Amino acid sequence: MRAVRFRHAGGPETLAVEELPDPVAGPGEVLIDVTAAGLNRADALQRRGRYNLPPGASDIFGMEVSGTVAQLGPGTGGFTIGDKVVALLASGGYATKVAVPAGQVLPAPQATGLLEAGGIPEVAATLVANICMLGQFRPGETVLIHGATGGIGTFGIQLIKALGGRVAVTASTPEKLDTARQLGADILINYREQDFGEILEAAGGADIVLDTVAGPYLPANLRALAPFGRIITIGRQGGAEGTLDFAALMKKKATITGTLLRDRPAGQKAEIMHETHTTVWPLLEAGAIRTPTDRVFGLSDVAAAHEYFEAGGHIGKILLDCRT
Where do the Enoyl reductase (ER) domain residues begin and end (predicted)? Predict the structure, then answer.
């Protein structure tokens, strides 16, 4: 098979497509002929040497794919050869084939093309795990999402609105905010010109802040919270350290949680994927959520894809077409 690894930590130019032995489906695994792999920020961090892979994970890049079932390992049920599927991975998605625990594989949504479906598993599972399961979201609540137009933002706006919530977003340009408005966002904040903490406080506060920045955003995130609100940190783009006002935290009876999806045990991922299938798939099939794809690159153009991703101008997902 063909797969992407890197020669050493560094820029996009360090990525290379290599010929490697084909994987085989082990017990309880599904072997997938990959159609598409989605790009995620963790891929860029891994390439720079700033993301430790979970124990036992392949050094092949990629955390989500779409494709067709090519082989079933011993003891694997629920799928047949040729089924169209999507999968959540610890790694291994930037390849023409990948073996995945069956619990992390779902039928591809029928309302979405198989290529575009490659950008669904990671964002959908991240949102369900953190907003619905950990955050205990309830209809009528307000959710603040930092980064309105990436994969998490574009999918999250639609998911929260479909579940009966109010959505506030931050972005860097009027154009990005207009995209967020078209997707259904209620409160639009240009973080370069406006204080999102002040705006959310005046609007009654956010019940959940889905935080991808951490570090310097901590004081404003806390100010933005409604009483009994929850800050759920899933990224640290702004830095790993911040200043916390414990008096403000206690006054708001707030909760701050840090979490990752990638390094969870297979059993937990299977539970999250089951909940994702139950919550998200009916909304996809009903057309309540669409999956914007910004651009598709060939597998051999992976360096250009990473360069484009890090430029930060994309709306929705960037995909790799992994078909040979």
Answer: 10-320
The verdict on 113 and 147 lying in the same domain is no
H-helix or E-strand spanning residue 245: none
Q: Is 96 helix (H, G, I), strand (E, B) or coil?
A: coil
d(CA 44, CA 23) in angstroms, rounded, equals 24
Sheet (strand 225-233) strand order: 187-190, 166-171, 142-146, 206-211, 225-233, 255-258
pLDDT per position as a tens digit, 160-199: 999 999 999 999 999 999 999 999 999 999 999 999 999 9
**Cβ(153)–Cβ(119) under 8 Å?**
no
pTM for this entry = 0.94
Contacts of residue 299, Cβ cutoff 8 Å, sequence gap at least 6: 2, 4, 17, 94, 96, 320, 321, 322
77 shares its domain with 29: yes
- Same domain flag for 115 and 40: yes
**Of 243, 258, 273, which residue is a domain's last?**
258
Q: Print the domain residue range for 215.
A: 124-258
Tell me how far CA of residue 105 lies from CA of 30, 35, 160, 215, 272, in angstroms: 8, 14, 23, 34, 11
Strands (E), the chain: 2-6, 15-19, 29-38, 64-72, 84-88, 97-101, 105-107, 142-146, 166-171, 187-190, 206-211, 225-233, 255-258, 293-298, 317-321
- pLDDT digit string, tens, across residues 55-103: 889 999 999 999 999 999 999 989 999 999 999 999 999 999 999 999 9
Q: Is residue 61 located within the same domain as residue 49? A: yes
User: Does 9 fall in a domain?
Assistant: yes
Q: What is the CATH number of the domain that holds 150?
A: 3.40.50.720
Cβ contacts of residue 312 below 8 Å, gap of 6+? none
Q: How far is CA 305 from CA 18, 20, 83, 124, 257, in A?
A: 17, 21, 28, 21, 32
Q: Do 215 and 252 sit in the same domain of this protein? A: yes
